[in-house]
Design goal:
Structural class: alpha/beta
Strand content: 15-25%
CATH superfamily of the largest domain: Aconitase, domain 3
Radius of gyration: 21 Å
Number of helices: 16
Strand order of the largest sheet: 5-4-3-6-7
Largest sheet: 5 strands, parallel
Distance between the termini: 55 Å
CATH class of the largest domain: Alpha Beta
Shape: globular
Number of domains: 3
Length: about 475
C-alpha cells in the first residue's frame, strides 16, 4: 500500500491536470487572498483581456501593507505617500468591479492578510491557499498547502482559479521533547533555520512534526509556518488535530452544524501515514532550543542569547558583522537598541501581545528606545483592549497603533532610521528591510519587550503573575 505524507494527500486532491516532464501540474486553488500591493497589475490584465474573476466567492481581499497605523485626522487617514493612498483606492475599485469581498476600514475584520484569514475561519485544513505575498506559508499551520505567488500568477488564479505548479519534494522536521519554559515558537523556527540554513528547505514542502510541535497552540504553529519561506521552503505544514479544530470552531467563515461535523471527519484523515516516506528528515531535540535571535542580515544567522558573535572568516558573515556593527566575540546581550517593534504576520496575534505585555507590566520603556506595538487585525486590537493590554503598553511608554504590516516592511511610514538597531518580532532582517540603512535583530515578543525596558538586547524577565 502506498503510504502518503500530509502534503501528498492535499496535493493529490487538488490536481486538475497531472504534471509531466514537459509541463507542470494544473493545481486547483481553494482560497485566494488578495491585498493592495501585488494585485493592481493582475486586475489590470483581467480588464485588458475582458476577463472576469472565475470564483469571486473563493477570493478574499484586505488592506494591510500600505495602510497607516496612525489614526485618521479630521476623517482622513495619514497615508505616507500618494502612491499608498492610490493602492488602497485601486483595490477598493477592483473589488467592487470584480465582485470580490474586501475587508475594508470600518468592516471590523480588516488586518494583515495572514492574520485575518485564520481568525475569520477562511483558512481551513486540506485547502490550497495562495496570495501575492511570500508569507502565505503561515496558513499551512492548519494542514493546508499555502504559498506565495507572483503578481502575474495572481492574475492567473483570478482568471482560472488554477495555477501551474511543479510538485516539490517533502521534508519532515521532527522536534521531539519538551521546550523550555522560556522558549516559544519564534525561538523554535529561528533555531530550525539556523540548523538547516536559509537554503535548506529549497525545493521542499516542510511538515513540522513531533511532540514539541503538537504542544504548540495555533498562534505558535502559525509563527512556525510563517517563516518556512525564510528557510527557502515552498511551504510549511502542521497536521490538523484537536487544537486546530478547537481554534476553528465557531469562526465566522468555518462550517456550521452538520457541515462542521462532516468537515472535522474529513480533516482527521489529513495526517501523514505512519510509514509515509519523506525525501529528507531532520531531527531536533526540543530541550536544546534556547531563546534565539538573529545577529546578521538573514534569518539563518541566529544565535541563542547566551552566545557571542561568531568569528567572521566567511565573507558573507564578515559583511553581515560589519553592517550590523558587531565585533567578533561580542556578547549579544547588552547591545544597545534604538527601536522595538511588536507586530507583523509572524507575531501580531493576541498571544504575542500578551507575552510582550507581561514584560512591560509595571515597568517602563528605556528613554532611548522607541517602541511600536501594532496588532495584527481589528479583532486582535479589540481583544487586546478588552484585556487592557493597550493600557499596559501606553503606561510603559510604548505606542499603541492601528492594525497593519507597519514596520515589518516599512511601506507605510513606520520606519527604522539609518544606522538604528531595531529588535523586531517580524520575519526578515535583510539590509534596509525596515528602512534604508536600518539594522534588524529578529526576536520573540518577550525578548523584544524585555529589550525595550533595558534599552539593550536582553533576556526576558519572569512574567509577573497578575494579568488583568
Amino acid at each position: 500500500m502506498n503510504m502518503k505524507t500530509l502534503f501528498d494527500k492535499v496535493w493529490q486532491q487538488h490536481v486538475v491536470v497531472p504534471e509531466t516532464q514537459e509541463a507542470p501540474a494544473v493545481l486547483y486553488i481553494d482560497l485566494h487572498l488578495v491585498h493592495e500591493v501585488t494585485s493592481p497589475q493582475a486586475f489590470a490584465e483581467l480588464a485588458t483581456r475582458g476577463l472576469k474573476v472565475r470564483c469571486p466567492d473563493r477570493t478574499l481581499a484586505t488592506l494591510d501593507h500600505s495602510t497607516p497605523t496612525l489614526p485618521a485626522i479630521d476623517g482622513e487617514l495619514p497615508y505616507v505617500t500618494d502612491e499608498a493612498r492610490h493602492q488602497v483606492a485601486t483595490l477598493r475599485a477592483n473589488a467592487a468591479t470584480f465582485g470580490i469581498e474586501l475587508l475594508d476600514f470600518g468592516s471590523g475584520q480588516r488586518g494583515i492578510v495572514h492574520v485575518v484569514g485564520p481568525e475569520q475561519g477562511a483558512t481551513q485544513p486540506g485547502m490550497t491557499i495562495v496570495c501575492g505575498d511570500s508569507h502565505t506559508s503561515t496558513h499551512g499551520a492548519f494542514g493546508a498547502i499555502a504559498f506565495g505567488i507572483g503578481t502575474s500568477e495572481v492574475g492567473y488564479v483570478l482568471a482560472s482559479q488554477c495555477l501551474l505548479q511543479r510538485k516539490p519534494k517533502t521534508m519532515a522536521i521532527n522536534v521531539e521533547g519538551t521546550l523550555r519554559a522560556d522558549v516559544c515558537a519564534k525561538d523554535v523556527i529561528l533555531h530550525i533555520i539556523r540548523t538547516i540554513g536559509v537554503e535548506g528547505g529549497t525545493g521542499y514542502a516542510i511538515e513540522y512534526r513531533g511532540s514539541a510541535i503538537r504542544g504548540l497552540d495555533m498562534d505558535g504553529r502559525m509563527t512556525l509556518c510563517n517563516m518556512s519561506i525564510e528557510a527557502g521552503a515552498r511551504c510549511g505544514m502542521v497536521a490538523p488535530d484537536e487544537v486546530t479544530f478547537a481554534y476553528l470552531k465557531d469562526r465566522p467563515r468555518a462550517p456550521k452544524g452538520d457541515a462542521w461535523e462532516a468537515a472535522v471527519a474529513r480533516w482527521r484523515d489529513l495526517a501523514s501515514d505512519a510509514d509515509a516516506q519523506f525525501d529528507r528528515q531532520v531531527h531536533i531535540n526540543a530541550a536544546e532550543i534556547a531563546p534565539t535571535v538573529t545577529w546578521g542580515t538573514h534569518p539563518g544567522m541566529g544565535l541563542s542569547l547566551s552566545e557571542s558573535v561568531p568569528n567572521a572568516d566567511d565573507a558573507q558573515l564578515a559583511k553581515a558583522r560589519r553592517y550590523m556593527g558587531w565585533e567578533t566575540g561580542e556578547a549579544l546581550t547588552g547591545r544597545a537598541v534604538d527601536v522595538v517593534f511588536i507586530g507583523s504576520c509572524t507575531n501580531g496575534r493576541l498571544s504575542d501581545l500578551r507575552a510582550a505585555a507581561d514584560q512591560l507590566r509595571g515597568r517602563h520603556v528605556h528613554p532611548r528606545v522607541r517602541m511600536l506595538v501594532v496588532p495584527g487585525s481589528d479583532q486582535v486590537k479589540r481583544d487586546a483592549e478588552a484585556e487592557g493590554l493597550h493600557d499596559v503598553f501606553r503606561a510603559a511608554g510604548a505606542e499603541w497603533r492601528e492594525p497593519g504590516c507597519s514596520m515589518c516592511i516599512a511601506m507605510n511610514g513606520d520606519i527604522v532610521e539609518p544606522g538604528q538597531i531595531a529588535v523586531s518580532t517580524s520575519n526578515r532582517n535583510f539590509e534596509g528591510r525596515q528602512g534604508k540603512g536600518s539594522r534588524t535583530i529578529l526576536a520573540s515578543p518577550a525578548v523584544a519587550a524585555a529589550s525595550a525596558v533595558v534599552g539593550a538586547l536582553a533576556v526576558p524577565a519572569s512574567p509577573r503573575p497578575e494579568r488583568h
